[in-house]
């Protein structure tokens, strides 16, 4: 199953990230390939920067809630990825997807 979440323009503006309105973050969770991809258009609007993590390397999911919206940071062995300006419900949904996936898998551990 593939899930996709994108930053909200209104939340980015409300949190003072006006420069990121044209370059929103997108998180794609693919439970079939067991990957999390965070995408964002680069500063020159020419290409897209992309970070990908495998489920088996995830160590922590941190949700930083603001008055409007939330930021999510997914820490893994060797690095971390962050997406800003998401709705609070989307961040909680991402966390729920990962924990539900962890419960169904006996051989791999998402959170250790």
Mind explaining what this structure looks like?
The chain is α+β, with helices and mostly antiparallel strands and 112 residues long. The protein has two helices and seven strands. The strands form two sheets. Strands 1-2-3-4 form a four-stranded antiparallel β-sheet, with no helix packed on it. A hairpin with a 2-residue loop joins strand 6 and strand 7. The model has no long low-confidence stretch (mean pLDDT 88).
Label this structure with key terms.
single chain, 2 helices, 3-stranded antiparallel sheet, alpha+beta
Q: What's a concise summary of this model?
A:
By secondary structure, this protein is of the alpha+beta class.
Strand content: 35-45%
- Count of individual helical segments: 2
Strands, count:
7
Q: What is the percent of helical residues?
A: 10-25%
Residue ranges: pLDDT <50 for 5 or more in a row? none
Oligomer, anyone? single chain
Question: Secondary structure elements and their pairing?
Answer:
Layout: E1 2-6, H1 9-14, E2 26-30, E3 35-41, E4 48-54, E5 58-65, E6 70-76, E7 79-86, H2 88-104
Antiparallel strand pairs: 1-2, 2-3, 3-4, 5-6, 6-7
């Amino acid at each position: 199953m593939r899930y996709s979440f994108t930053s909200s323009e209104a939340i980015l503006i409300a949190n003072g990230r006006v420069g990121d309105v044209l370059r929103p973050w997108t998180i794609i969770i693919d439970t079939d390939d067991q990957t999390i991809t965070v995408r964002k258009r680069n500063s020159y609007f020419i290409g897209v920067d992309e970070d990908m993590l495998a489920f088996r390397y995830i160590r922590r999911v941190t949700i930083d809630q603001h008055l409007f919206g939330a930021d999510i940071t997914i820490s893994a062995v060797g690095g971390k990825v962050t997406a800003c300006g998401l709705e609070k419900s989307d961040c909680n949904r991402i966390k729920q997807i990962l924990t539900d996936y962890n419960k169904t898998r006996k051989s791999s551990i998402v959170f250790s």
